[in-house]
Amino acid sequence: MTEYATDAVEWLELPPRDYTYSCVSLQYGAGRTAGEYCRLRHIPTELNGHWQHGWHLKQLAVDPRMVANETVKEPGVEQCWVARKDEEDYLKDQGYLARAIGLPIAYVPNRNYQRKRNSLLVMPAHSLDFTTHKWRFSEYIEEIAQIRSHFDTVIACIHPACARKGYWIHDFRRLGIPIILGAEAGDRLSLVRIRALMSQFEFVTGNAYGSYIAYACAFGAKLSIYGPYCEYKAEDYANTDFYRENPGLLDKIIPMVSENSIRAFLPEFFHHPAEAISRTIWGLDQIGFFNRLSPEEMKVAFEWSDWQHYTKETLGKLTSLARRAVPKTIRVQIKRAIRR
Q1: Which region among 87-101, 139-153, 225-239, 297-311 has the lowest average model confidence (pLDDT)?
Q2: How many angstroms from the chain centroid is the CA of residue 272?
Q3: For the whole model, what pTM was predicted?
Q4: Region 132-142: what's the mean pLDDT?
Q5: How far apart are CA 125 and CA 158, in angstroms?
């Protein structure tokens, strides 16, 4: 990871980076967050199913793969854990196994941060390592420059992939706006970082659809969508494995996250950042905070309890040592019992 884009902000409390492998469902620190929540001795890196890692509006339930955030197999095969009941109902209507338990960030431990009065965190649209974009970078930053006098502190949060490409950085630096880096899939403290950011700024603004909208609201920041909007295009994702595996999905998603669509879905957020208000309950509901499992319930759901670990270990030995001696019907019954 290149850290050259990070500026020192003395009053801001952020965790260090912790880069360790995790499966897709446990990236961004979901595994670490859930493991600590369940008080496990070891941080899990694998999950038997799919845990939605990013926020989606109800209106964006246009495809099961969009809701799950992953390539899911045919209906009825794999378990999907999602944020909200509307998402659970949608997936069940499509024949999938689903349960609303809240997003991973809903399980990050609460901490009393000091929120800096009249501070603005700017979170422009972000790229990924395998995407390219031709957004109006300079135009957006000039718009931020025109409103910065309304705030005592203005800081830009850039995705590490954007930092590596040089997106946003030079114009923000030219204006003297400090830059910090946001979340990254391989960083097991990313969720802690994002909650810390949303808990220390009074105002947050961005110029595209993204999880920051719900996260900012959930943790007490005043959110706005402002300035030249960053539209996503199909060609931006030409090198993305997920969309290669799921042809046709982009054609469904891109119109739904356009400026016209998001303005229709969330008109209350399109205004000057200084006019933003708190919408904490809305944000908590969006991330499924009120659907959270207890630690014991999560261990059972994710098959992390001691008895499930022992049962799977025993089944593994049976499979390897005496597979022919155990009829297939009995093996299937044992696996179903574990998933309960």
Answers
A1: 297-311
A2: 25
A3: 0.88
A4: 93
A5: 9
- What CATH number belongs to 116-281? 3.40.50
- Residue 316 has a pLDDT of 46
Q: Does the pLDDT value for residue 327 go beyond 80?
A: no
What pLDDT is recorded for position 315? 45
Pair 159, 182: CB distance under 8 Å: yes
Question: Span 106-122, mean pLDDT?
Answer: 97
Residues 84/285, Cβ–Cβ less than 8 Å: yes
3-state SS track over the chain:
CCCCCCCCCCCCCCCCCCECCCCHHHHHHHHHHHHHHCCCCCCCCCCCCEECCCCCCHHHCCCHHHHHCCCCCCCCCCEEEECCHHHHHHHHHCCCEEEECCCHHHHCCCCCCCCEEEEEEEECCCCCCCCCCCCCHHHHHHHHHHHHHHCCEEEEEECHHHHHHCCCHHHHHHCCCCEEECCCCCECCHHHHHHHHHHHEEEEEECCCCCHHHHHHHCCCEEEECCCCCCCCHHHHCCCHHHHHCCCHHHHHHHHCCHHHHHHHCHHHECCHHHCCECHHHHHHHCCHHHCCCHHHHHHHCCCCHHHHHHHHHHHHHHHHHHHHCCHHHHHHHHHHHHC
Other CB atoms closer than 10 Å to residue 189's CB: what's the count?
21
Higher pLDDT, 121 or 317: 121
CA angle 279, 284, 289 (to 5 degrees): 170
pLDDT at 196 over 70: yes
Cβ neighbours around 87 below 10 Å, total: 24
| In the block, residue with structure tokens 């659907």 | 291
Between CA 22 and CA 295 the distance in angstroms is: 20
Q: φ, ψ for residue 299 (rounded to 5)?
A: -60, -40
Considering the chain, tell me which residue range(s) the CATH 3.40.50 domain(s) occupy.
116-281
Q: Residue 296: count other Cβ atoms within 10 Å of its Cβ.
A: 11
